[in-house]
Amino acid sequence: MTQPILSVIDLSVDLDLHRGFFGKSKPEQALNLLKEITFDLHAAETLGLVGESGSGKSTLARAIMGLQAISSGQISFEGHPVSAAKISHLRQGAAMMFQDPIGSLSPRMTVAALVTEPLVIHGQPKQSANTLLARVGLPPELADRYPHQLSGGQARRVCLARALALGPRLIVADEPTAGLDVSIQGEVLNLMTDLKDREGLSLLIISHNLAMLRHVSDRVAILYLGRLMETGPTEELFSRPMHPYTYSLIASEPQPDPRKRRDDLVIKGEIPSVLRRPSGCVFHSRCPIARDLCRKEEPALREVTTGRQVSCHFAEDFKNQQGERNELVHK
User: Fold this and answer.
1) CB 289 within 8 A of CB 318
2) Do 198 and 257 sit in the same domain of this protein?
3) Does the pLDDT of residue 27 top 80, yes or no?
4) Using CA atoms, how far apart are residues 132 and 139, in angstroms rounded to an integer?
5) Helix, strand, or coil here: 317?
6) Rounded distance, CA 285 to CA 140, Å?
7) Structural domain boundaries, residue 274
8) 7 vs 60, 104, 151, 317, CA distance in Å?
9) Are residues 46 and 157 in the same domain?
10) Is 67 within the bounds of a domain?
11) DSSP state string for 124-159
């Protein structure tokens, strides 16, 4: 297999809760936001990262793009380790689409200035704003507008045009369809997929929308309280999930067939605060099959079959016991 375009190895992010005036640290107390995240993303591949609110999805995206300091681990882009001192290669080869498109665009700049600004910052030859807008299906008359004059779908496309300006090989998209009508969501996703297929882009799409990620992703990674629960090829993971959290997320999706009953493994309760992260397996407080070992010992993310990784002490047992339950998973 070819070298991954993006490689994340044992990435951890801690937040120092106690810092005094003038940046002086008080006795150390770190809040662990992400712990030992490991995955690869290959050229022309789409990886969907899914999790509930508070799972650490946006923190991971910001860490990958160098916008969030990491505590340990390594990020490599196109074989080059990424660090604060060597960030320029990543910044020119990767781009990020933020969750709030209007908020991420300067209200004082026109659309034309916004989409060409990355070229100015990096000293690249300036392209026509109309050319960049045309790549994302926007008419040239939008070039003189300001962000507040755009619809939600138009703002998303402007952010995509801006991300494409430097000819990136990777786009990290944080909730790219949030707040959009279903029809507009489809248009944005189809546009991103078409660009990926035509230009060989790699996409890391972050969302809580399972159905959307199933539609566009080659592989899916499941995140919970800053830990990876499961990763694998999309259809394989959806058809036979090996972690109870993955199964519960899929089973909780609305069923188009009213004759199907709800599964008994649908997730219950709210995701705990990272300030009170459960001991052992972080999911055990909501897991319907938790045992004593789950409460005492944190499972490692391990490869169980080729291309499938899972963080569960009893993944094989769970897979073998699914039986008729699997028919209830949304297909």
Assistant:
1) yes
2) no
3) no
4) 10
5) helix
6) 53
7) 241-331
8) 13, 26, 35, 30
9) yes
10) yes
11) PPPPPHHHHHHHTT--GGGGG--GGGS-HHHHHHHH
